[in-house]
């Protein structure tokens, strides 16, 4: 709550109140307040703050995304106050809003940009919106089953024809979604194409002025079929102004696209490419090399393309890119589980990272801010390489990236290459409650060296070899726990690279997955002690898969994570007893929780007590063991007790191994699936926000 003293009355001599700050300072402070609180609470404090809260600099661009505490009444009140001011509005992820609340947007006739992705919207409601917003130029929304473009009015079709940016998330009846982002700098080629495009029924849409095309598919052949409909126009003509082409197709057999060679030829000719991502089978190394030679991209994503990784590295470290210093985001991650990818399992050497090449990559791309190297391998060789400093370790090279903000690494990259006969621990130490500080000595931890040289690092992901989640985002759902592939350095050399490093102080998001050498988890406690601002923590399959051997350390960790807002915990054998929920209650700011365990157990009464204690929790997803009746009973209890006071409450409790789980997942809010429930790396997946 904001407190203001009117006209200085009541101010004690020598003290400074809110009213003593200049308007500029107060406006800077108010920018950190959510719009809902700004309009509904702060503006009522005093006359001065009321005036400032309605300053156009605060209300022209408004984001209400994930305002979990704002119910439909609060959002409607905000929209009533914003109707004469707002030009850019995002309701992305507000899955709980009713249709009547969405209808209030009709009054915001000055809207130029509108993001409704994740909201429930019908074709008739969209038609009314488009007919009432004459200035709209940018639109994002979800195309749900049953959407009928024939219900759009003529006026709505005219509004569509004036759009310069359209982003759709097409909800298909498979496991996942197809997301398409399209940007046109002028106008679409006719109204009928726009309507047909939304349903994927166009014969051949014409993107004459298209600048950006993005398609992110979930597993499923139906998604690939729909994608080819959107790409049909490229077989006729590649848009000349295309500068961003991002297509992600998971699975072992991406559908063949005949126009890939035409796209490559066009990108070579125009040379203004900024972002590129392609399935591994669409371009060969020679064609890709020519594309990179003629351009200076800012974002490259060649995840799951091991055969192209060396081409990308060679282009960036040689003269194969026009200006490699412009690159800020690079994804070279491999394929974690290769049983369905026989051509990749035969080419194991392509997963290896070479110290010399990576050192040169850092030198040639000094402005990298986001780097993803997951599911690759790095085995450090202490032998001296000519032209490099002696013992140049991958982490030593990466520590020179002073602008690095997010990083994803394989755990073997933390090894120093020296092996000892005694058992070793990956990333974590034996847990002894109350034990003294046991941070690694200087020079023994690759992770410590890395963190010391990257002061801006906020997101860190460390994943072991062969890890695949029971609920993955980019793989078919795994019903059984997959054995992790052996890697000597993943189990042995990483014992010196403990997580308890002072460099963790700046981290906001930490992911540790598939680390087989974890025993008791002392490093987790040290992370919590050193990283007081940690907001999101994801732990999956640490240590033995036959028991939960770091439970005591995790409880101590949770007691120290006072700023944690999101927790995802996946382990084959979770014991969610009273002690677990009591420790989790110390995370007073927690908003989103996801627990995944095929043999996990839970204590219903303790869950209810936890929800009563942590009143900010809006998302509780639990996929554990137990009977269907027990899961449904607890889910109903939580919804009945807390839905009224928590408008955005999403509770899904279901047996992980139940045959109807895919149907349950399909009905869950897409933003929560994508951001929390389904496991995926989030580093360098998309171009950085402009």
From TrEMBL:
Residues 15-62 form the F-box domain. It comes from the Eukaryota. InterPro entries: F-box_dom (IPR001810), FBXL18_LRR (IPR045627), LRR_dom_sf (IPR032675). GO terms for biological process: SCF-dependent proteasomal ubiquitin-dependent protein catabolic process. This is F-box domain-containing protein. It comes from Oncorhynchus tshawytscha (Chinook salmon).
